Amino acid sequence: MIVAILLAYLKRINQRAHFRDVFAGVGSAFALIFAGGLAAYFLIERYNGSNIQTYFETGTFLIAAAVLTYMTFWMQSHARGLSHDLQSKSDAALSQGKRWGLAILSFQAVGREGLETMVFTLAIIFANSKQAAAPLHGGALWLGALLGIAVALLIAFYIYKLGAKLNMRRFFQVLGVALMVFAAGLLADAIQNMQELKWLPFGRGQLWNSGSVLSENSNIGDALHNLFGYSQQPSILQAVIWVLYILGGITLFMYLGRKKKAKKA
């Protein structure tokens, strides 16, 4: 979306020659994030089966949950002004006559979002690797990533080529609720790890065992676990944290959204 907004604005002011500067920034950010993600994965994978890997995984879950929460509220507060802000920064870069200004702008924007996506993706991979049949689902992870990129490109094409005006506030509102649910699942995984490490010795009682109905090792169970934090044997603390985060996070998100709308009205 950020790239599409930049390109659409450059097209509107007849500055197509700067498209390559934007693409240079995007390509550099993508290469750096992809290389960093691979390096982080293989570094952590070296300690497979040890407590050190569990430490890394737990940290990744917590960081990813924090990042998703921050993204949710950041998007809500910047939904209306995102396009105008990018246009102002583009004008500043063009007025200074520095071609690399737009490249840096797109690099910063894509790099920031890419870093958040990389952390979230690592958390998903580590959550998946905890399942006994995880190797069977490696292809599904890549398929999901490619489908996500395809959807993102379609949205970008819709914004740029068709000149459609996307309702940013509504789009970010729906996306924000989804991100809250994803973050809750990551928190539940972090709680499970910390209980296994005996950092949280309380609330370890098992609520139920739904493995015979929907196993986490099945395709559907694995997808539900990775996206929504489904657990076939959740502990009391896992369930409490998941419910409290969902109720508290989404309630606050919706309340701040309505408050901001009422203030502008």
| Low-pLDDT ranges | 132-136
Q: What is the tally of beta strands?
A: 0
Described by strand count, sense and barrel closure, the largest sheet is: none
**Helices and strands: which structural class?**
mainly alpha
Q: On the 0-100 scale, what is the average pLDDT?
A: 82
| Principal-axes shape call | globular
Q: β content, as a range?
A: under 5%
First-to-last CA distance? 27 Å
What is the count of DSSP helices, taking H or I runs of 4+ residues? 9
Gyration radius over CA? 21 Å
Number of domains: 1
Which percent bin holds the helix content? Answer: over 70%
Instruction: Note the run of SSEs as H and E.
Output: HHHHHHHHH
Describe this structure in words.
By secondary structure, the protein is mainly alpha-helical. The protein has one domain. The protein contains 9 helices and no strands. It starts with a helix and ends with a helix. About 2% of the residues have low confidence.
